[in-house]
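Ticket #4471: structure output looks truncated?

Reporter: J.K.
Steps to reproduce: submitted the chain below (108 residues) through the standard prediction queue, then opened the result file.
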Amino acid sequence: MGWFGRKKREARVAKEAKHVPDALLAHLNEFVLNRRGVEAWVEQPTSFNKPSLLLIAHDGESTRRAVPSADYAHDFAASHSIPCYDAGVVPYPKRFRDYSLRQKRAQS
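Returned output as attached by the reporter:
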């Protein structure tokens, strides 16, 4: 990506960040700051879903929220210095699936 392309992307992400609800940003920040070993998975938009950011902690606890764009999600992860992966390329970790299974068993 050239210098001008990078500047356009940065301007677009900054514009999108202005329209992010405070509650969404507070929830994502709280999750990252209060859990250890958080990693991010960016889920690309589909014809019926917006792009989303899935945050997974070291124990498998997670939160998924719709975000304005995939670029915004990548920038959020970079600003918190957490690893960020594309969900279509890197599979979800086993601890995420194990945590979901433990929660289902605890409910039944």
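Triage note (M.O.): checked the attachment and the full token line is present. The helical segments are 3-18, 22-33, 70-79, 94-107.
Status: closed, working as intended.
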